[in-house]
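Good day; I would like, with your permission, to put a structural problem before you. What I wish to show you is a protein chain and, alongside it, a tokenised description of its three-dimensional fold. Thank you for your consideration; the sequence and its tokens are set out here:
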Amino acid sequence: MPLLLAPGSARWPHLVDDAAVLQALLDVEVAWVRVQARLGLVDDDVVAAVSAHGDVTDHDLGPIAAGVEAGGNPVIPMLAALRSAVGPETGAAAVIHRGLTSQDVLDSALMLLAHRSLAIVVDRLAAAVDAAARLADAHRGTLLVARTLSQPALPTTFAAKAAGWLAALHEARAEVAARTHLLPVQCGGAAGTLAAIDALAPGRALE
């Protein structure tokens, strides 16, 4: 649902609502199990067992939300729900979150939300670029008074003004698109030293 203190949330509430946050948290945990598989620490059947329960629709938001108060963040109750869903049979529950801390998962999940939201921003900026281009083309001969320090100056055209908007919007779209692919993840472990991760895969923590 849209948030009163989050202008614009009514347009795409699904990007930032509780379900989106929980999905991002689950995505981080599933991705971390896949990283462990890539390092040879777990088998593919473990990855499959965790991935099978990595969709937000597999979990009840109510109990997870209620559990946030005890630990001060949503990662702890999310982990309990995910481990319970996976079950002890394959040993997969034991490798979920291994080497990480709650802040790693929460911060990385927020970056996922930002990445998904910025994709919409890039699309909207592209639409604004197109609109400015149409304005500039349609008003090549539309005269208006230019201003300097808010005072009337020499004549110009509305096309020239729209072209300025076009250039700024084009630059903004390119910058946001580039930043979308540079958002960081966090996996420093409990003290941010990579010690727990290095213990899992000695010498490979920075890969």
Q: What stands out?
A: The mean pLDDT is 91. The beta strands are 143-148, 151-157. The CA atoms of residues 40 and 201 lie 9 Å apart.
